[in-house]
Design goal:
The complex is a heterodimer of chains A (381) and B (141). Chain A is mainly α. Chain A contains 21 helices and no strands. Chain A folds into 3 domains: 140 residues, no CATH class; 105 residues, no CATH class; 113 residues, Flagellar motor switch protein FliG, alpha-alpha superhelical domain (Annexin V, domain 1, Orthogonal Bundle). Chain B has one domain. Chain B starts with 5 loop residues before the first helix and ends in a 7-residue tail after the last helix. Classes of the chains: A mainly alpha (381), B mainly alpha (141).
Chain lengths: 381, 141
């Protein structure tokens, strides 16, 4: 209940936006914009954004917030840190608003929340009147990136979404109940046409930016199997609305939990995917030719989408169907089985690039990165 | 269970006459939630009850931004706490926020009713159920 959340915050938040004058509100909104702008720059890879901001910022509380982020302070200690620094000891309403806004913004930044979430939460301390200005500023500063490469996993979901079998209301409700993570994981494996349709029925311009960002993130972070699991979970959720039975929240939670549990060791996924992406075309082709469809199907369980694409573009089309059939018939592997499959793959890579003549005992001519990835995979227990 | 707070209780205190209007407000909010769940968020953004209340306007726009439930709840709580409303107006804003959260969670209309009815208190909750029964509206079961 919202009353419990309000009760939890009530004594902490002494600030009252109604007591702010227009000028004070404008100054604080500018401060929130400066803060979120630095976060956006940092997330875009600008390593100097935070150090420069600490040097140049004139407001002490904002400088302090930047320094806490630079020090990767635990979000749980941010309020205490502001208190210990003496920054909460004020009765001035504008300063109270500033400090509360910065504490919450810093906590969210350290929790890696999306800049839209950080900005909207900070702006909430300034009341409804800044909402339009905040929205416009976010649109201006979060320009749509080039969309990541389309990834299409086999399945019925795109057709179900596009053929009108489900109402827009049902689909939008399923997207809301799934939440941003499960929704992004689901649609990261669908054609752009489906993604655009979902955006048109569920999100406004800002929501579309957030959805695109989450999809990009899912495509780089999740293996094909995880995306397929997410699609199954979403489909079940959508079906549960049509059947109109049970508590949909429980279904969603259970399905999301299942996806979470099925996650494999992310560093293994990353090593295997990077190895596939780094290998020379001929080497990869030769290695894949030496593996059975069943082994390739197991390997696919621990691959990021880009690696998945490279594998399928390397396999001859005549063999692709056998691999897809093997994927269809394969059960999820446990961590030990996944590690063994990855090691088998790494050994095949080594044997493929090794000199065949024993007299040629030269060091392997492998790029450093490939060598590191092979030793990381083979060094696992 | 509600984790009560004295400051909060004082701020939302209102008269019995005000409380007597809550069942009708909840009836309207249930109709709004039903439409939002069946036809989508956009279908309700022009509704009079939405247009008249900043928190509903703002809340539905945040829902269109695809905000996660937890972040959405925190933003609504900040808006309510730091805003200037008190008494019955504050209580109404809490009800609006609860409705928005229930829509965001994809609740069925029965669950939404269970979340809103406690705002009436026990006696008024019975009135609410009677109104829903008589008018054959969603949530009557």
């Amino acid at each position: 209940m919202i009353l419990n959340t309000i009760s939890n915050f009530y004594d902490q938040f002494r600030a009252r936006s109604a007591n702010l004058g227009d000028h004070e509100r404008d100054i604080l909104l500018d401060e929130a914009k400066r803060f979120v702008h630095v976060i956006i720059q940092t997330r875009n890879g600008d390593k100097q954004a935070l150090p420069s901001a600490v040097k140049e910022e004139k407001r002490k509380p904002l400088r302090f917030a930047y320094s806490l982020i630079m020090a990767s302070t635990s979000p749980a200690y941010i309020r205490q840190a502001f208190h210990t620094a003496g920054l909460t000891a004020t009765r001035d309403q504008a300063e109270c608003c500033e400090i509360e806004m910065l504490i919450v913004g810093t906590e969210l930044a350290l929790k890696n929340a999306h800049p839209i979430v950080i900005m909207q939460t900070m702006a909430a301390f300034l009341g409804f009147s800044v909402f339009d200005a905040t929205h416009d500023w976010l649109i201006e500063h979060l320009q749509t990136k080039t969309r990541s490469e389309e990834l299409i996993l086999p399945g019925d979901l795109p057709e179900i979404i596009l053929n009108g079998e489900k109402s827009d209301g049902e689909i939008a409700r399923a997207v809301r109940v799934a939440g941003p993570d499960l929704a992004a994981a689901t649609f990261s494996g669908c054609p752009n046409e489906v993604i655009d349709y979902i955006k048109s029925i569920c999100f406004d311009d800002l929501g579309s930016v957030l959805f695109d960002d989450n999809i990009d993130d899912a495509r780089t972070r999740l293996s094909s199997d995880e995306i397929a699991d997410a699609q199954n979970a979403f489909y079940e959720l959508l079906e549960s609305f049509s059947a109109n039975t049970g508590n949909t929240k429980i279904v969603a939670h259970e399905e999301a939990e299942e996806v979470r549990k099925s996650k494999v060791d992310e560093s293994l996924v990353s090593d295997v995917s990077n190895l596939i992406l780094e290998l020379d075309d001929k080497v990869l082709k030769s290695v894949l030719a030496s593996l059975s469809p069943k082994t390739i199907a197991s390997l696919v369980q621990m691959m990021q989408p880009m690696a998945h694409d490279r594998v399928f573009s390397t396999i001859p089309s005549g063999r692709e169907k056998k691999v897809l059939d093997a994927i269809e018939g394969s059960a999820p592997l446990n961590q030990v089985e996944l590690t063994r499959t990855a090691q088998l793959f790494a050994q095949k890579v080594l044997s493929t690039v090794s000199p065949h003549s024993k007299s040629l005992q030269k060091p392997l001519e492998l790029p450093t990165k490939v060598r590191q990835l092979l030793s990381s995979i083979l060094g696992r227990e | 269970m509600i984790y009560w707070n004295v400051g909060l209780a004082k701020r939302m205190a209102c008269s019995d006459d005000d409380k007597a209007t809550l069942p009708f407000l909840i009836r309207d909010l249930l109709a709004l939630a039903t439409k939002a769940q069946q036809e989508g968020i956009r279908s309700v953004q022009g509704e009079p009850v939405v247009a008249k209340n900043d928190i509903l306007v703002f809340g539905f726009r945040l829902l269109s931004e695809g905000m996660a439930l937890e972040a959405f709840e925190e933003i609504l709580a900040v808006l309510l706490i730091t805003g200037d409303k008190s008494g019955f107006e504050f209580l109404k804003q809490c009800l609006f926020a609860e409705t928005l959260l229930s829509i965001a969670a994809g609740d069925t209309i029965d669950i939404t009713l269970r979340k809103l009815a406690p705002y009436c208190g026990v006696e008024m909750a019975i009135s609410l159920l009677t109104i829903l029964e008589e008018e054959n509206l969603p949530g009557k079961s």
